[in-house]
Amino acid sequence: MSARAAILVLAALALLGWIASQTFYIVQQDQLALLMRLGKPVATIAEPGLNAKIPFIDTVVVYDKHLLALQPPLDQIILGDQKRIEVTTFLRFRIDNPLRFYQSVGTEEQARINLAQIVSSTARKQLGKVALPALLTEKRDQITDRIRDEVATEANALGVVVTDVRILRAELPAETSQAIYDRMTSERVREAKELRAQGFEAAQQIRSKADRDRAVLLSDALRASQTERGVADAEANTVAVSAYGRDAEFYDLYRTLQVYRSSLTQGAPVLVLAPSSELMKYFDAGPNARKPATQPPALQSQPPAKEREP
Predict the structure, then answer these.
(1) What is the pLDDT of residues 14-66, one digit of tens each?
(2) Phi, psi (5° rounding) for residue 107?
(3) Secondary structure of residue 86 in the 3-state scheme
(4) Which structural domain range is residue 7 located in?
(5) In angstroms, rounded to a whole number, what is the distance separating the alpha carbons of residues 162 and 91?
(6) CATH assignment of the domain containing 113
(7) What is the pLDDT of residues 138-154, one digit of tens each?
């Protein structure tokens, strides 16, 4: 075979190969195919295998059957209690109807844009009905389920099936968080001042009650001591009167000696007395001062006046 004939054979084989590539196409197990004829969809191929098409007239659009993930951008939402929060959501979806998908969005990129808008609007609508505390309790799962169901219903029109929608993060904006933190700080400071005031008031009440009880106890003790002292003084006076009645001279001597003891001690006040003072009689007369003066014999032997003769 000459070189020219070999070149012709190779050219014919290349042409046949190119025609075959334009005629046959393979759908993989993880793919969905949409057969287009002059730009118009004519068939949907969901089963894997080798398929044929008309060269230069038919085209094939292939979509992925895998479960796809989508995380829309951060979105600020106003809740039902007028609190503004920043919400980050997460979405999983799968292309289910290639024909509807092609007619509604055409490409996967456009589908992601549309799904992000659906999730954002649905989240705004559902979260606008609840208050912030609901997102911190078990009600959060119920809210998420409602968002998922509504997004799945709207996504059917795009030819996709939404399997899951989750709220990854729901936080207050930085400026709102700082304002809330400042308000909480001021509230705690106010409560601390109030508690200190209540404690001071309670301390004042306890202190005043203690002072009142102390005054009452001192008064009762003083009254009791004065009563006891009065009783003791009365008993002392009784004893003194009894002693004075028995021996007046001895009692007078005892009291005088007590005066001497108290006045002659160191540091006692200075007394200036005349020698003839009654207080100095024991220094002047000595023990004889205690002897009573005796009456004259004439007076002792004189009979009573009523017995005298006239």
Answers:
(1) 767 777 666 777 788 778 888 888 878 887 887 877 877 777 787 888 888 88
(2) -125, 160
(3) strand
(4) 3-63
(5) 7
(6) 3.30.479.30
(7) 888 888 999 999 999 99
